[in-house]
Amino acid sequence: MPIDRPNTKHQLLSDSAKLFDPFGWFAPVIVRVKILYQKCWLYDFNWHDLLPPTIEEEWIEVKKTLHQLEQIKIPRWASNYNSNVQLHGFSDASEEAYAAVVYLRSVDYNNEVHVTLLAAKTKVAPVRQNSIPRLELKAAELLAKLMKQVAGPLKRFNIERYAWTDSTIVLQWLSGHPCKWDTYVANRTSLILDVLPRKHWSHVTSKNNPADCASRGISPSDLVNHPLWWTGPDSSTWNREVPDYNNSEDTLEVRKRYKTLNITVSLPVTTNVIEKQIIKQRSSLIAQLNLSRIDGS
Prior knowledge:
Nucleotidyltransferase, domain 5, about 300 residues
């Protein structure tokens, strides 16, 4: 990719469109380009104006090291038919983007473990400010959709599916019934649980979460030999630990429920003179109005 061309918003879009990555193997690098392009829309300049210095410096850094991705070689065959196969998906979010990544883990007859990156997907965070827990929930939703897409061609295999997130709030949202949460959370937890019920979800520490690479972005030079991204965390640490939940109702966005109180007031049978006069005047006024309508017709 030429680096001597003027770095304009138009040129940034043109160069980024040449990055073809249908399986998301280079997601940690491409998400950086997505974030840069989104930042361009926050500045009021035209298509052919030069990029702001902060964006231009990062874009030039990416272009200079992008050729190092040619060193990466990905095996076409992930497993053999005689092995025990599992799908492990990870999700994570940052203030700038959220991501999901799926690995195939197989154990052969010799008890050798093989982990292969299958697919990944990233999305930039909305320009409208969102809380980190909500972005983590959107990452979990993205993972559920990606797991469904990846597991489709593998239906003939008896594959176990596992989903991992480092957000305890998301796990607590998925542990409760969707009707318990606010509308935003309820809609997304319903979709997630339809694809991956709660029993499939587990907690992973942030340092062992490979989706963290794709939600924050890394340079091409770092991606070439990045063990956490290409093979996931050490498979011996993939224990399904249950974290402690210490989240308040405000953080969990519990649906607000309001109770209606009906009060019946009994008036005395006897009324005083003033009340009788008010009632009599009101009745006379209504009678006069009705009479005038009849005369007018």
